[in-house]
Amino acid sequence: MILQHFKKHYAYYLSFFVPAILILIYFAYRGAYPFGKSSLLTVDLGQQYIDFFAYFKASLLHHPETLIYSFSKAIGGDMLGVSAYYLMSPFNLIFLITPQRLFPVAVYLITVLKFGTAGLTSAIFFKRTNLLKGLLIPTFGINYALMSYLVVNHFNLMWLDSVIMLPIVALSINGIFKGHYPLFWPIALGITILLNYYIGFMIVLFAILYFIFQCSLKITKPKQLLPAIWRFVSGGLLAAGTAAWLLLPTLSALSESKGQHTISKIQWRFEYTPWHQLLKLIIGSFNFDQMSTGYANIFTGSLALFGFILFFTIKRIPLKAKIAAGTISLLLIFSLCYEPLDLLWHGLQFPIWYPYRFSFVISFWLLLLAAYSFRYNVPMGITQIGLTLALTLGLVLLALNVVNRFDFISKPQIAITAGFMLLTLVLLTLRQTRYHGVNNLFIIIVTVEMGLNLFMSLNPISYLNNSDFTTYTQALVKGSDNVKELAKNTPFYRIGKTYERTKNDPMEADYYGASQFNSMMEPKVTDFFGKLGQPKGDGFVTYNNGTLITDALLSVGYFLQDRSDPIDANTATPNLKTSLPVVSSRPDLKEYDTARLLPEQQIYKNPFALPLAFLADAKVRATKSYTDFPLAQQEAIFHETVPQLTTPLYTATNYQVTLDNMRLKKHAAGLDYTKINQKQPAKVTLTFTPATDDPYYMTWGSTLNSKFVSLTINGKAIGLDDGYQNTLVFGVADQQKRQPIKIELVPQKNSLWLDNISIFKFNASLFKVWANTLQDQGLTQQKITPLSISGNIKATNNHQVVMTSIPNTKGWHVFVDGRPTPKIQLLQTLIGIPVKSGTHHIQIVYRAPYLRLGLVISAFSWCMIIGLTVYRRKHMI
């Protein structure tokens, strides 16, 4: 029984298990846990996605409402759009039954399963369409699963599901031409869009091209065309309708985040010399630099490449099908190098890293036309042999001519590629002779070739040690869990840290923080962080280097401090080796209360933290905006919220500059230095002596990142980001009156520009008056959930507003004394509420924009599908 089942379905088993086992073996060879000390965590998978998986588990099991909105996304943000992009894969359910310390193992397992499933779905396509038979089915299935796109994007797990679905979508389009209404098409496309709307959009574009190609093959009479187009278009709309419950809120979220970066002016130009793309047909043509600025990953093996070329030589294929295929092929080729087409595939936005994310459709297209070549049993005459030999020779000569100019190819790679191309050519030629069993050899050649490409492509990539994740995460979770225990009666608080593994630590440990790395970050939030002096980019914000006033403003009620950081001689353990990498300087934490000591970290309670909502003077509505002067911005917020405090909060402090092997550049504008002896170490030292025990802060320009300089404050090395777009603020002293402070800057290049460096004294006593004033005007009787905030507030005059630290986005609705009230926007970012004198009950409620409408549309679409299914069974339309 089992043997008969295997004989019937062996093509599916081979298509699944061969690529799955190859992936398993490769990462075992690389030492991935449990086979070694490494993991599959690299780049964004290790810095971003793994934390989203932890958030996904915590949300589903403990607080599902955070799947809609979460205060763990920076200082708050929509999560439906984030989930739609990162978390809709059914494979993610594996994380629900996996302990957090074993998440890297779950990632390993999911990766293996996804590669296997890609082989399976492609095998289903090639078999159900009758394009291939016998061992050619798993041959092409293995080829699809191990195409270069999937291999080099194995860490972009959220993209792989839609790539898995592409063959199923193509198969469903074939059903359009069977004469009845094809329900398979809208269901397959709807699922694909739900799994990842971004890759799903690319598949929609390809589906249009694939439909045109199928029309060229299957439409034989003009009257057949309009019904086919109707089924295709109506089915596509029905597919969008089934996914509307997620698509509409996601589109709304995109309009407030990533959508604001849409290109408005298209450059009608080639992005690079087009023939450079041919080098990606060389086996293993990938390295780390290709992730950020490389060419499209289209390597699909020799069999697919030759089969694609030979398709156009087969006389039995109709001319109109060849014209359609040729036109589509040219369109796809130009999409790899012509900017308007590239932008179209990416939704009119250039991707940040990982360019040409649509190139998987090109690999599928190559395999598709190659399958047609095999279906029509392409004859290998002089023309065909000449074409394939010319292609092989041309590619080899081109690659050898430029091999020294491109670091992702080498002469051994070129030789191996030529060897496989010639071997494939020999086998294709033998198919026309008495060696009829030669088809069975293709599976061996393809498996070896694609397996070698897997090894050669990923060997240059480094991966995070498993212990680096597990040890740090355990310490982080222990710290946050202790804070939760200490603050169990506090309605709302955020947690800050002086250490960091990723910017998504708050999601990893399930707490409200203020940092986030997310492609769907709202620009108003990132701009707000930049103005306050926190590192920000287009897709991230970091809150590690706050000041006393920003901590208070953002309700940072607790701070976790690495105990190896000697800011407090009574509690620090300077020689302690911890798993907590220090990334900030916060000597001002001495102003807070020690709440608890843990083996590796100390927990501070901030007595000055403001409530999530509080009354401020109405002048805050007109607060001036400062782009490159964060302390001026903080000063403005300070005075506009409590205008009766007129004394300056920050006062500039002089410092001395000492140069070691450095000198000012000739005609330098400002503190712009260059090395005297470029072969010797150099540094710039800033020194000053605090005149009081107040906190002191240093501003730090956006050009001073880890690529250009390293920073040490009083002997403590500070971890810097490798890029940010704004001036930062660092704490440099507190309660260190008359104690010299030394700040050392070591250039990583031969020059160093001290961009926007200044030192300021902070008036701590004045700040405490400000904090106490606003705390007394805070929301009382608070009830706070991720989707609602309510409480009472007492305004003493008509010149006050309710100020919050909640980003002002579409989904928030405000009610004052039960009546809907228009929101106002404060500091160009935060929700404000106008109120009149008296006691008021405030409610702030989040409703995901268009979620209800989307649910109605999706319900209607599914009713249509069910109704059509019933009607079809009765009437066989």
From TrEMBL:
UniProt KW keywords: Membrane, Transmembrane, Transmembrane helix
Keyword Transmembrane helix tagged: yes
Residues passing through the membrane, by range: 12-29, 79-98, 105-126, 132-152, 159-177, 183-213, 225-248, 294-314, 321-341, 353-374, 381-400, 412-430, 437-456, 850-871
Keyword hit for Membrane: yes
PANTHER family assigned to the protein according to its UniProt record, in alphabetical order: INTEGRAL MEMBRANE PROTEIN, INTEGRAL MEMBRANE PROTEIN-RELATED
Protein name stated in the entry: Integral membrane protein
Organism in which the protein naturally occurs: Agrilactobacillus composti DSM 18527 = JCM 14202
High-level lineage: Bacteria, Bacillati, Bacillota, Bacilli, Lactobacillales
